Amino acid sequence: MSKVFITRPMTAEVEARAREIFDVEIRAKTSVMEPSEMCDVLREFDCIVPTLGDLFSAEVLAAAGDIRCKLLANFGVGYNHIDVAAAKAAGIAVTNTPGAVTDATADIAMMLILMSARRASEGERLVRAGAWQGWHPTQLLGQHVGGKRVGILGMGRIGQAIAHRCHYGFGMKISYVARSEKSLPHPATFMNSVVDLAREVDFLVLAVPGGAETRHLINAEILAAMPQHAHLINIARGEVVEEAALIAALQSGQIAGAGLDVYEFEPKIPEALTGLNNVTLLPHLGTAAEEVRSGMGYMALDNVFAHLTGMTLPNLVV
Ligand code: NAP
Questions:
Q1: What separation in Å is there between the alpha carbon of 279 and the centre of ligand 1?
Q2: Which sequence positions are flagged as catalytic?
Q3: What percent helix, strand, coil does the chain show, rounded to 5?
Q4: Can you give the three-state secondary structure of 130-161, one letter per residue?
Q5: In what order do the strands lie in the sheet with 3-6?
Q6: Which residues line ligand 1 (CB under 6 A)?
Q7: Separation of CA 265 from chain center
Q8: Residue identifier of the C-alpha nearest atom 12 of ligand 1
Q9: Which of 97, 174, 208 to mutate for ligand 1's pocket (most ligand atoms within 8 Å of CB)?
Q10: Phi, psi angles (nearest 5°) of residue 246
């Protein structure tokens, strides 16, 4: 019988379904897989359900030797931790879980826009520290979000869900950069370059995939182009932002604030960042809702099921 390996504990209903339909082993640890573990499971299992941080690199795939695995059914839409070209060369298909994550991640982007603009984390820290002296007219003044201009880098599923919320929910003006212009149900200005986008925003929101093509798209030059009152929001992948340049821009007041769900060297976050008051820092919460994680799990299992029964893979990446 075909053997399936899942690299992290899943929601109870996804684990129950996996056990019902497959000969499955579910790793009990919540930490990322070590290279030696990845080599072992590549040799022992037909399908693996990996997730964020499980670095299936070309080196790991080469070191594994005699590989039995034919499918990496990633749990998550982002698959930049898998070397898809090396996987393909090794005869391994890669699938992901698009769509299941879209609304939840767009919600977190809105939460970060609001928290950063309205200085919510700073206010909460003040209350928790017992340092709040009471309301007064000029205390913790932030920025109003309604009607402002949001620039969205990446106008795919999540970028469009963010634009929808910004336009219909907050009456915001929208500009964006993507590889191609989109036909959207509301006004939105397509821009040709990230630096031009950065120049005119009140909020710059990142919604591109990670990987070599987008690494450090946000760097010192882009941060310098942003207006001083603007905020950077990252719900994409940490490596899209050159973190040292962001810290410098926040320290010098070159930009007003940042709302981050992801980090360049996740889960390591420099003290220079945690020490700043003008940042909102979330622990990669984008899809962290029970039903969303179950939806992602079912989608990954559907890909495994399709592979094992010879059907077309619903969410093939390569
Ligand atoms: P998607 O539908 O594939 O959209 C990606 C968008 O990025 C597309 O509009 C694409 O342009 C654009 N893009 C790609 N490379 C680009 C480049 N070099 N320059 C400019 N634009 C570029 O993906 P999605 O479902 O929206 O997800 C986006 C990413 O969000 C994922 O890959 C993942 O890393 C991240 N994410 C994070 C969380 C979290 O928990 N924080 C949760 C889910 C996803 P075209 O449309 O023109 O091709």
A1: 23
A2: 237, 266, 284
A3: 40, 15, 45
A4: CCCCCCCCCCCCCCCCCCCEEEEECCCHHHHH
A5: 23-26, 3-6, 47-49, 71-73, 93-95
A6: 77-78, 98, 101, 105, 154-159, 177-180, 207-210, 213-214, 235-237, 261-262, 284, 286-287
A7: 13
A8: 154
A9: 208
A10: -65, -45
Across the strands, what pairs with 30? Answer: none
Tell me the domains of the chain and their CATH numbers: 3-100+289-308 (3.40.50.720), 102-281 (3.40.50.720)
- Beta carbons of 18 and 301 less than 8 angstroms apart: yes
Distance 19 CA to ligand 1 centre (A): 32
Peptide bond before 267: cis, by omega within 30 degrees of 0? yes
**Tens digits of pLDDT across the chain (318 residues):** 899 999 999 999 999 999 999 999 999 999 999 999 999 999 999 999 999 999 999 999 999 999 999 999 999 999 999 999 999 999 999 999 999 999 999 999 999 999 999 999 999 999 999 999 999 999 999 999 999 999 999 999 999 999 999 999 999 999 999 999 999 999 999 999 999 999 999 999 999 999 999 999 999 999 999 999 999 999 999 999 999 999 999 999 999 999 999 999 999 999 999 999 999 999 999 999 999 999 999 999 999 999 999 999 999 998
